[in-house]
Design a protein that fits this description.
The structure holds two protein chains of two kinds. By secondary structure, chain A is mainly alpha-helical. Chain A has three helices and no strands. In chain A, helix 2 packs antiparallel against helix 3. The radius of gyration of chain A is 17 Å and the shape is elongated. Chain B is an all-alpha fold. Chain B has two domains: 122 residues, Four Helix Bundle (Hemerythrin (Met), subunit A); 51 residues. Chain B contains seven helices and no strands. The chains are: A mainly alpha, B mainly alpha.
Chain lengths: 104, 177
């Protein structure tokens, strides 16, 4: 536990965040884009927990932020999937290129 | 190198490898399963940091809730056996460039910054009772207001989901005609 410096955990979460960002840039399917967003939210959670544990071990702020982020991510995923299913009903596709009525 | 650090690097490689597969594989069902493994890896990272409560929350909410929801919606919307089309080469190239430059910049900033760790760090113990007490306290550093806001948000999201996903026969017909 003490052998790992804080920066290595931050390297891990940074790499995970940019993996999620890469997925968000390249995917055109709404469900896979949502999965990339989940990866990015998780990397932020790792950051909060690591800062809490290494820099402020007498407080619990980072843990609370992580719990609230997990809750909001759950609500966000549920609403997003409801929207995706509704879009599939009207367009018969969940590709973002096919849903361009409100683009301009 | 102690056993704990070796375990950390194994967990980190597992998370990054499965996360990379989750965003690059072209079969959508496999992508969701790789995402599942990545989230389990993050839960095991919390276990490694001795945060058992957070690891349990991660497994219950993400692995048990969100990934199952995603798999359901995959079955409801697309043919899961089909491969997705390859990303356009130009877009793929620019996405890789953007991700790599952002990664390099952030890694450099992290490695240059001097983090001020406390002199004599108190042993970090996470008691679930402390979390509950602080979550519901109204004094300084209490989290009662965000707790109530989150409960309102969850209620609103639940009702919103039902309203959005409700089958509206008339409106669907008018859209199709």
């Amino acid at each position: 536990m003490t052998g790992i410096p804080l920066t290595h955990i931050l390297f891990l979460s940074t790499a995970l965040f940019f993996i999620g960002a890469y997925g968000l840039f390249t995917r055109r399917n709404m469900i896979t884009m949502l999965m990339s967003v989940e990866l990015m939210l998780n990397s932020v959670n790792i950051n909060f927990v690591a800062f809490n544990k290494y820099l402020y071990p007498d407080k619990l702020g980072g843990i609370f932020f992580s719990i609230f982020i997990i809750t909001i991510a759950a609500a966000e995923a549920a609403v997003a999937i409801a929207i995706i299913i509704n879009l599939y009903r009207s367009h018969h596709s969940i590709d973002v290129e096919d849903a361009s009525e409100m683009k301009y | 190198m102690s056993a704990a650090s070796i375990i950390f690097y194994i967990i980190a490689a597992f998370i990054l490898g499965t996360g990379l597969l989750a965003v690059t594989t072209r079969k959508i069902f496999r992508a969701s399963i790789w995402l599942l493994f990545s989230l389990i890896g993050i839960a095991s990272l919390y276990f490694w940091m001795q945060l058992e409560f957070l690891a349990a929350v991660q497994i219950i909410v993400y692995v048990g809730g969100i990934v199952v929801l995603i798999i359901f919606s995959i079955f409801l919307t697309i043919k899961s056996g089909e491969e997705m089309p390859k990303p356009i080469f130009k877009r793929n190239l620019f996405a890789i460039l953007a991700a790599l430059s952002g990664l390099a910049y952030t890694l450099r900033q992290i490695s240059l910054y001097k983090f001020q760790a406390p002199e004599n760090p108190a042993p970090f113990e996470l008691k679930v009772g402390d979390i509950g007490r602080q979550m519901l306290s109204t004094t300084d550093h209490g989290y009662l207001l965000p707790f109530e806001l989150i409960s309102m948000l969850l209620l609103a999201a639940m009702i919103g989901c039902i309203v959005i996903a409700l089958k509206q026969k008339d409106s669907v017909k008018t859209l199709q005609s």
